[in-house]
Give the backbone structure.
Amino acid sequence: PTMAAAPSGGLVLVGSSVDLTSAGTTYATIVIDQCFSSTYENYLIVGVIGVEAGGNVRLQWRVGGAGSESTHTTGNYRYVGMDYENDGASLTKVELAHETDSEIPIAVDVTAHISDGSHFNMWVYSPMNTETDTIARLTSSVYRAGNDLSDRTATLNVPNVDATGFLIANSSGDMDEHAIYVYGIVKS
């Protein structure tokens, strides 16, 4: 008898931006373009980002459409989700629901530097499929001042954009240390 072949699925690194130097360059935006293509249908983004001193900012994610990566889409982000926060040893819940925001917030109230920064992952589904909207599922964790923790889960929809890449920016100030990896998910 012959044995069935093992599944061939897996992750393939298709883009990244890494700068882990604590006294290194600062970034107004981190851009990873041309990472989404017709080669893969779905993607996983994994990252950690630190912000400059004086944090308490909002990390934002925007997609860029095919041929227009330099003008990342700034409207029509729909998302729903929940923040769970350990605020002074008590749990608070904050509902997220937006119909036409200018981006998806990866995390809010991020404090300074990578050791206290935002860790996140995002599953991106069919960003280049012209028949569907770009859909993503986000989870992020943030350590904040006063030993507070925040955990965010959200699902987002970006209509009418065949995304080829994305950028991450702060609502104010710069980012510094970071490691962001984009993986194409191989069909099995």
